Task: structure prediction
Amino acid sequence: MKKKDIFLEAGTVQKSIGFISKGLVRSYYLDHRGNEINVGFYAEKDYATHYPAFVFQKPSNYTIQCLEPTTFACLSYDDMQWMYNQSHHIEKYGRLVSEEILKRQQERIESFIFQTAEERYLQFMKNHSALFNRVSLSHLCSFLGIERQSLTRIRQKLAHK
Result:
């Protein structure tokens, strides 16, 4: 897919999960004012999915958009269920993927409860350093839940340390 292409549109059911072999996507929702709020960035060796909506085949609340030209290996929901029934090893892999997604979601929620904006920024830099130059500052600010001016102040403060 090309940059800016939509892999999953909010309000639709995700029929296939996408394993990213090359590229970068973001997951976002529209708030009540129509602002795009980023909730995740996913690059090579990661999955492009709103997993709970995919697993239960319900309409997604999120849009997944390519930030770079992106190549996916896709697996349909029906094929995934068939594979689970064929192999306990694949079923176990699916459980491990589910656990990782749950862990990430919990970390994201808790970052807004227990961390300052500066701590969230530092955590992003630590855990996603390879993405730092691939994600625009406006997308990063949205993901961190801060205004651009706040990010500028944080970066200046850290530069002086």
Summary: The longest strand covers residues 36-43.
